Amino acid sequence: MSKPIIGITALDDQEHADYSGSDVPHAPRYGQNQTYIRAVEAAGGVPIIIPILHDEIALRCVYALLDGLLLPGGWDVDPAYYGEAPHPSTVMMPDLDVIEFKLVEWAIADQMPILAICRGMQVLNVALGGDLYQDIASQMPAAANHNQREEQIPAQQGSHEIIIAPHSYLATISDASNLAVNTFHHQAVRRVAEPLRVSAVSTDGLIEAVEWSTNDRFVHALQCHPEYLWDDHSWAGRLFRDFVAACEGLTTNDQSPALRPLR
Questions:
Q1: Which of 118, 146, 160, 211 is catalytic?
Q2: Higher pLDDT, 154 or 110
Q3: Which of 56, 225, 233, 247 is catalytic?
């Protein structure tokens, strides 16, 4: 028996970690939140963590193992990709941008299922030609606070509502016109890349979910964090189950493109 293998990109824990005040040495390490692992496993998939690799051949070898790609939350996308200088609040992890953009390129070409969450949604949109608000507070001053961590609201609890587009995939799995969702972001999608369409917005007008503009592939992205909600919210559990089901039997493109070092 086999199960679909879902790749989840890792963060560089060392790059932005604060170990001040600790006398225990920490080696550089890659990691990812266990919530993504548990959500994919519970949905029937086999999650594997993709480290930040600097050789494209090595990354392609890992990609060849995958049946689906999950782009998780994390640090901000380098705004140079959409022609802007960094805002003072923008915190980047450039090496992660490089591998995630390459993985998106390959996955889109192969019609591999993609589930993108928070930063992942922003990566997907920028990789396909869209752009972002770098700082909601200063660029959208009328918007609500989209980081419930600052208000000490638990991650498993919704803190604001989103309005769901009729006939969207999100409307189908939730059977609702709005949902209460959790939120942990200070950036947001501004101009949506042409292959995507909006599937949900917040009540203050920010884009909260996008999907592929045709129904021939599973490409769905959410600004909220369903990996904290799948166990208690039926729509979030359905999202992960549908994602894993879409990955069943996928064969990646054997015609590898010309490869080059990633940096």
A1: 118
A2: 110
A3: 225
Q: CATH second-level architecture of 5-12+29-246?
A: 3-Layer(aba) Sandwich (3.40)
Catalytic member of 100, 208, 211, 227: 227
Tell me, yes or no, if 227 is annotated catalytic: yes
The answer to whether 61 is a known catalytic residue is no
Tokens of 238: 């359905």
Q: Is 16 a catalytic residue?
A: no
Mind listing the pLDDT tens digit for each residue in 124-139?
A: 999 999 999 999 888 7
**Concatenated DSSP letters for the chain?**
----EEEEEPEETTTS---TT--S-----EE--HHHHHHHHHTT-EEEEE---SBHHHHHHHHTT-SEEEE---SBPPGGGGT-PPPTT--B-HHHHHHHHHHHHHHHHHT--EEEETHHHHHHHHHTT--EES-HHHHSTTSPP-BGGGGT--TTS--EEEEEPTTSHHHHHH-SSEEEE--B-S-EE-SPPTTEEEEEEETTS-EEEEEESSSSS-EEEESS-GGGTTTT-HHHHHHHHHHHHHTTT----SSPPP--B--
164-205 per-position pLDDT tens digit = 999 999 999 999 999 989 888 789 999 999 999 999 999 888
CA dist 23 and 103 (Å) reads: 38
